[in-house]
Amino acid sequence: MLSQTIQEALNKQVAMEAASSQAYLAMASWAEIQPGLDGVTNFFYQQSDEERIHMLKLIRYINERGGFAVVPALEQPNITFQSLQRVFEEFLKHEIAVSESINELVGLCLGERDFSTHNFLQWYVTEQLEEEALARTLNDKLELVGDDKGGIYLFDKDIMLFRNAANASGNMTT
Question: 0.85 cut: is pTM over it?
Answer without folding.
Answer: yes
